[in-house]
């Protein structure tokens, strides 16, 4: 997500209304070759990732990374790379066309009988650090809770609250300002028969179901934004302000009417300055019982969903395995950003889990 100048498309969570508009950088952004297969291919239906221990997490990249470069990933476990390729789990995390490090991150962790899959989209000056810390703390706290098999919903709520506390302590310890920096979190916790969606912010998850030899996409999450009546009511009750920026219809959350800092989402990790006006880290939680018609669960940051529809993701997965589809979706998202904005692309993350 990241922070950027006001003249950019409204994909960013933190907007600094006092920032002066700077001259555009000279970029020559090329749309990556899509190489999308459009011939039907069979997808193996299995869940090998729930039977062994492994983890995959994004690392902090080099400050000199190129646009669309892949975020470095840390694989732990003998089968980690095999289980995150081909017809198994598909994933990619790409830097956008912007002036900051890739602030997206991801985590795939198997601790039988659970699979944790999460996408975290940072924003603000230190959004890359916040997303990296959430990537570390949240799965660790959740998967080590001995009450998971008894009351998973309560454990999920507690893990999000403890992660927020851990972020505050860690930022103070390493002298990182997280007053106006934070990140989204969209997590799937999968067992053999159930899938829990745990969600903050505006990254999204969708379920792809088989229907008459096609895939249909069903949303698993709703964006936590000020345009949502329930979210708006909480912000206003707590003394926050909601305003539109630069004549757009997109609403932002402000601490005070004369504040220069606006937040595009109403739930997030970090963002300490907004806590007293109703911005919370309490997740939306939903349980789905997995059926034989459920084919894939897909999590993407808003760098994908800004210009790609749910049904388009389903179409790509109808004819490609998870590894190919993840990269094809990322390339398609990049090309749409270039078509729409010419010189701005948000960070892009895709995670695909076969069910």
UniProtKB/TrEMBL annotation:
It is a peripheral membrane protein. One of its GO terms (cellular component) is membrane. InterPro entries: PP2C (IPR015655), PP2C_BS (IPR000222), PPM-type-like_dom_sf (IPR036457), PPM-type_phosphatase-like_dom (IPR001932). Residues 88-355 form the PPM-type phosphatase domain. It comes from the Eukaryota. The keyword Membrane applies. Belongs to the PP2C family. This is PPM-type phosphatase domain-containing protein. It comes from Stentor coeruleus. The lineage of its organism: Eukaryota, Sar, Alveolata, Ciliophora, Postciliodesmatophora.
